[in-house]
Design goal:
alpha+beta; Ubiquitin-like (UB roll); two-stranded antiparallel ribbon; 2 domains; 5 helices; binds FE2/S2 (inorganic) cluster; three-stranded antiparallel sheet
C-alpha cells in the first residue's frame, strides 16, 4: 500500500492503495464516484472512461500510480447544480436506454467537443467509435452531441457579443 495523490473534479485526494490498483476501482470504491462504470475490465468497451488532461481515458486498466494530470469524472461535469450542455442534450434527445454505457459516451463526447466544438458527423463517429452500446443508441448519441455543439456554439457567440 502507498499514498497516492489524485486531483479529481477540482479537488485533491490522497488515497492509501496498492499502486497497481486500476484508477476505476479507486474512483468508485475509495472516492465513491459511481459515474465511471465497470464493463469489460479489458479496455475494450469504454464505459469506464474519464477525462485526464483533456483526453478520454479508460480507467479500468490504468494503474492509479500511473495517472498524470487532473481527472474529470461524470460527477465533475455539472457545476453549481446546473447540468452540463451535454447532459441537457442527452435528456433532450432521450439518448440512453439502459444507461450502462452512457458515462463513457458523455465523457468521450466532452473530450471531443472541448478540442473540436463543431465536429462533423464523420468526426463524431470517429471519436465515439470505441465506446460500445449494447442498446444501440448510437444515432441518438450523435444527435445529442450535435445538439450540444449547436448550444455551445450559440453560447460562445452570445458571450463574445
Ligand atoms: S470497463 Fe474499461 S474499457 Fe470496458
Ligand atoms: S444505453 Fe444500454 S448499453 Fe448503451
Amino acid at each position: 500500500m502507498s499514498i497516492v495523490k489524485l486531483e479529481v473534479n477540482g479537488k485533491t485526494h490522497e488515497v492509501d492503495v496498492d499502486p497497481s490498483t486500476p484508477l476505476l476501482y479507486v474512483l468508485r470504491n475509495d472516492l465513491d464516484l459511481r459515474g465511471p462504470h465497470f464493463g469489460c475490465g479489458l479496455g475494450q468497451c469504454g464505459v469506464c472512461s474519464v477525462i485526464i488532461d483533456g483526453n478520454s481515458v479508460r480507467s479500468c486498466l490504468l494503474p492509479v500510480s500511473a495517472v498524470k494530470g487532473a481527472i474529470t469524472t461524470l460527477e465533475g461535469l455539472s457545476k453549481d447544480g446546473k447540468l452540463h450542455p451535454l447532459q441537457q442534450a442527452w435528456i433532450d434527445e432521450q439518448a440512453p436506454q439502459c444507461g450502462y454505457c452512457q458515462n463513457g459516451q458523455i465523457m468521450t463526447a466532452k473530450a471531443l467537443l472541448d478540442r473540436n466544438p463543431n465536429p462533423t458527423d464523420a468526426e463524431i463517429r470517429t471519436a465515439m467509435e470505441g465506446i460500445l452500446c449494447r442498446c444501440m443508441t448510437y444515432y441518438r448519441i450523435q444527435a445529442a452531441i450535435k445538439r450540444a455543439a449547436r448550444g455551445t456554439a450559440t453560447a460562445s457567440v452570445e458571450a463574445a457579443q
